[in-house]
Design brief:
Blueprint lengths: L1 E5 L4 H14 L3 E4 L6 H11 L4 E4 L2 E2 L5 H14 L4 E6 L3 H6 L8 H21 L5 E2 L4 E2 L17 E6 L2 H10 L2 E4 L5 H16 L8 E4 L2 E3 L4 H19 L5 H6 L3 H12 L12 H7 E3 L2 H12 L5 E6 L6 H15 L1
Parallel strand pairs: 1-2, 1-13, 2-3, 3-5, 4-5, 5-8, 8-9, 9-10, 10-13, 11-12, 11-13
Antiparallel strand pairs: 6-7
Helix pairs in contact: 1-2, 1-13, 2-3, 3-5, 5-6, 6-7, 12-13
């Protein structure tokens, strides 16, 4: 199993943390797309590292068009000498329409077409194939020589697709090189919903190389006080996720729909500081991996063995020396292997 560490969002900090992660022995570093562009940070991180794989987990596909994203990702792939994993996500309708002012419809089908368009564009640049992609939502039929990137000596980046529901998960299995599971899941949900959807999507080509990546919430630290603070942050994060209607299916699977209703009510009344109290120990154990560093390393392998090829660790901030905790955790995971 491979283990990746989250990096700071901004470029200089991401580059420094990437260098530390590589020195500590992590397989990769990942960035989500929230308030900063992850590709800018990765351009700097690529220069500070030699082996660390760089994964977007995830970049928002529908905030862009395929040609612009193909160009940006191809540049980072070249800068990193082939170490980019392009993780794509759909986001949700309200953000795509009202934050990005972009169209939204049939997200799973649109994502599959978006991935196909990216591959057609890279094939045009790398192999000289005429660009003739015509889909329902994306149409790319013009690529003059002066606008085409030169062939990339490292080839195109791998494309992973992030998902939660069965339709997007199946689409990932069908068209992508890997799947990125979102943080708000349990092992029961993974076995009963995610795995069957991936098998369905991959049914046409089960022998194709494919990597399943999961993103567990991790609450640990190098002191008991740091562990306690990280666990509190994990309860807050779980309650925040529970507010979203999109995540109700995983709560209903466990008979916890009441958590959504209570968390949503607190959110609407601005009682953010009280939300952590809604998450009991059973819920915490289902959604997060907690404890001191050796306990967390052991539980990560026990819980996700057979479910994941790669883990993107989403560490909760417990204060203290985060870099020290990252080094200790990397060492513990190596000892467990």
């Amino acid at each position: 199993m491979k283990f990746d560490l989250s990096l700071p969002e901004t470029g200089p900090e991401a580059a420094l943390a990437a260098g530390d992660a590589e020195a500590a022995g992590w397989t990769g570093g990942w960035l989500s797309e929230t308030s900063h562009d992850p590709f800018v940070s990765f351009a700097l991180a690529a220069q500070a590292t030699e082996r660390l794989e760089l994964s977007t987990a995830v970049a928002i596909a529908f905030a862009r068009n395929p040609v612009s994203l193909a160009s940006t990702a191809n540049d980072v792939q070249r800068l990193s000498k082939g170490r980019l994993i392009l993780g794509l996500g759909s986001s949700v309708q309200v953000h795509i329409e009202h934050r990005y002012s972009m169209p939204w419809s049939a997200p799973a089908e649109r994502m599959a077409e978006f991935v196909g368009a990216l591959r057609a564009i890279w094939e045009c640049w790398n192999d000289g194939t005429p660009l003739a992609f015509e889909g329902k939502w994306y149409r790319h039929t013009l690529m003059m020589p002066q606008f085409a990137q030169p062939p990339n000596p490292y080839g195109p980046p791998k494309i992973y697709v992030g998902g939660f529901g069965p339709r997007m998960t199946a689409a990932a299995g069908r068209v992508a090189d890997g799947f990125i599971g979102l943080p708000f899941v349990t092992t029961r949900y993974l076995r009963e919903v995610t795995e069957p959807a991936l098998r369905l999507g991959r049914g046409s080509a089960p022998e194709r190389a494919f990597e399943t990546c999961l993103m567990p919430l991790v609450a640990t630290g190098s002191t008991p006080a740091e562990v306690d603070m990280a666990i509190h942050r994990a309860r807050e994060r779980i309650a925040t996720y529970a507010c979203a209607p999109a995540y109700v299916p995983v709560l209903e699977l466990h008979g916890w729909r009441g958590l959504h209703e209570a968390a949503f009510e607190m959110m609407m009344s601005g009682r953010w500081n009280e939300m952590a109290s809604l998450v009991d120990d059973e819920m915490l154990a289902a959604f997060a991996v907690t404890g001191d560093v050796p306990e967390v390393a052991d539980e990560l392998r026990r819980r996700f063995d057979g479910l994941a090829d790669r883990l993107y660790l989403l560490r909760m901030d417990g204060g203290g020396d985060s870099a020290k905790t990252n080094r200790l955790l990397a060492d513990a995971l190596r000892e467990e292997s």
